[in-house]
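Milestone M4 deliverable, item 7.
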Amino acid sequence: MIIIEADYMITQKQIEDTICSLYRDSVIELPEDIKNALKKAYDNETNETARLNLKAILENIEAAHKNSIPMCQDTGLPIVFVKLGSVKVENLYKGIRNGVEKATKKVPLRPNVVDPFTRENTGTNTGKGIPLVDVEIVEGDYLELTIFPKGFGSENNNALKMGLPGEGVEGVKNFVLETVLAAGGKPCPPTRIGVGIGGSSDYALKLAKKALLRDINSENPDNRLAELEQDILELINSTGIGPMGLGGKTTALDVKIELVDTHTAGLPIGVCIQCWAARHANIVLRDE
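Output delivered:
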């Protein structure tokens, strides 16, 4: 994690430049934990078609790094997670929006943002309500920005179930597995699977996305969730869907679960599927 000290106030210009830099890093440089997981999948694979696909993915990652170009033509919908502490910040949203527009020109990024009905493209990766910005108020004197550009080859395969209370753990397992089976090779596996449990319908899906910000190697501090993550991962990888949906041992690199309490009458379950290009980057700013 990078920490930058700012003088007295975090300015709009600092936020703009930071978001632009983060967006560039996220689409060009895959985090080390994900690269290592892909290399491990390649080393453990015995299916020749799967090995060929994993080799192509690893070569693609290296080519993106070497040539400073995005690793995938879909550079995602701009989503920014913000942790806002007791700091002075100037025009937070405007700085984020300007940073996305700057990155679109500078990296460059594919312009993905359109009107839902007319399909008119804004050309800037910004638009009505876009970028999507999630703000979490936290204790501490810092501002943390995380860019999470979400491609829609995987996003289109997300799912929500408003489960019944009695479905419990088995209901969660079954729904996640059903979602992965329905997706097949469409989200460009090997994938990362985020699961959100509890809250409300919208919050379960948000939790599922936030779960994907965790390091692949991190262990869930809740033992029952750690066990559930492993159980679901084994179920998914037993399907044989494999890399790019063409067979193999590794359909998912990991499963991460986040849970909050919910209403007595429900069991919301959100599933967020992320392709192998599990892009994200973050930074911490302080006004000291």
